[in-house]
Write a structure and sequence with these properties.
alpha/beta, binds S-adenosylmethionine, 253 residues, 7-stranded parallel sheet
Length: 253
Amino acid sequence: MNLSAIRVVLVATTHAGNMGATARAMKNMGLKQLFLVNPKHALPHPDATARASGADDILQTAQTVANLEEALTGCSLVLGTSARDRQIPWPILDPKEAANLSIETTQQQQQVALVFGREHAGLTNEELQRCDYHVHIPADDSFSSLNVAAAVQVLTYELRMAWLQAQKQPTKMQKQETTLQQNNLPCTHEELELFYQHLEKTLIAVNFLDPNRPRHLMTRLRRLYNRAQITKLEMNILRGILTETLKSTQNNQ
Ligand SMILES: C[S@@+](CC[C@H](N)C(=O)[O-])C[C@H]1O[C@@H](n2cnc3c(N)ncnc32)[C@H](O)[C@@H]1O
């Protein structure tokens, strides 16, 4: 299962910047193979480099070919993207379905092509008929045509999600998740004992607790806080309050 087995094919791109933005979208999502079918501008091009924003390696290794057939050589699944509702009766996939099918195909060591059309005219009917499936991004009907590099981003994002899920890798930021999980853990017995010592000291300092006549206050408070099942994050808050309270009593002396 390999994202490198999935190629992005741009057909007859007229704006060099779109090739760069496509390279950036691909690199963000871990794809490497870019095919350019008869582009208007040859690479390197300053607009492409600027929009690639560091994805220069994708542009440098991009293969420029004369026609779609050449770009599809070796592929066993070809997905053609289209903004238009066409008359050709063809199996249509949404981006998530397209991504899942692509990842399944790469699991069988096969190559996949995602084909994107011209900025002004999309893919021709002949080109679309060369594809196994059509992929439509369900944009708003009144304005359904995305910039070609934006369409690449949508499809490659879904590919990455499908790939991560197939590999049982997390799709959420690991670091945040770990911190969140840590904060939600219940605090330990030792942490609670330190808290009770801190609380007692603070209550004495603010004259709420008379150490000579404690009247079971700490026992009652222990029962209350034990019931609350305090998490590590909540314990930090409580300890912070006690620290500040003690500080202010010391400042007032
Ligand atoms: C600006 S669009 C082309 C619009 C063109 N007027 C047409 O009707 O096809 C350029 C390319 O972006 C992709 N694209 C844009 N919007 C899309 C959508 N809603 N679904 C799938 N692909 C889309 C397709 O590859 C399309 O050929």
